[in-house]
Write a structure and sequence with these properties.
This protein is α+β, with helices and mostly antiparallel strands and 180 residues long. The chain has one domain. 38% of the residues lie in helices and 22% in strands. It is built from three helices and five strands, in the order βββββααα. Strands 1, 2, 3, 4 and 5 form a five-stranded mixed beta sheet that branches. The chain is elongated, with a radius of gyration of 18 Å. It starts with 5 loop residues before the first strand and ends in a 7-residue tail after the last helix. Keywords: Coiled coil. InterPro entries: DUF922. It holds the Pfam family DUF922.
Length: 180
């Protein structure tokens, strides 16, 4: 039996003010095993853990007690110190599976940016933005779990290929909202 993989999601309302190292999602930078710097667990069937998540913050402007404008920032991050792999078992196929987890995080970020772009300023703007973020995190968790289930944690190569194509198509659909 092939080893199973596991993913960890970090969902942050606001980026913490820490020295934590992150890698922002980029078209031009794909993950390498060198990016996985966390301490590997040994007594497990898990070969690799990808820690990625959505960071979100916003600010609102007021005039005469009314909200008049807002700014929101959304990013897809990978956390090297919380991500790890077993050096004797990690291969290119598993790395591609892990990269797709990070790509799924970026997809949810793009979809959230799209939804934010359609928000109109109102007296409920703060709650509306919080709700959109919360829903994006729920969607992310569902999609990541569905991906692992359907691909059998990368073991089912046919499903892995289907997911890879699906995510690429969806990323392209939301290309106007990609991370820079």
């Amino acid at each position: 039996m092939l080893p199973r993989l596991l993913i960890i999601f970090l969902f942050l309302l606001k980026p913490a003010i820490t020295e934590e190292v992150t890698i922002s999602w980029s078209d031009s930078k794909k993950l390498s095993w060198a990016d996985f710097k966390g301490e590997a667990e040994r007594d497990t069937d898990v070969v690799a853990v990808t820690a990625s998540g959505i960071t979100f913050s916003f600010s609102v402007s007021q005039s005469n007690g009314e909200y008049v404008d807002f700014n929101a920032e959304v990013h897809a991050h990978f956390y090297p110190e919380k991500s790890w792999y077993l050096k004797d078992k990690g291969d290119d196929h598993i790395l591609a599976h892990e990269q797709l987890h990070f790509d799924i995080t970026e997809l949810q970020v793009r979809q959230l940016r799209y939804k934010i772009s359609r928000v109109k300023v109102s007296k409920n703007i703060k709650q509306e933005l919080r709700d959109l973020h919360e829903q994006a995190n729920k969607n992310l968790a569902i999609m990541q779990n569905t991906y692992d289930t359907q691909s059998n944690n990368s073991i089912n190569k046919e499903q892995q290929a289907i997911w890879s194509k699906f995510v690429k198509t969806e990323l392209d659909k939301y290309k106007d909202f990609k991370s820079h």
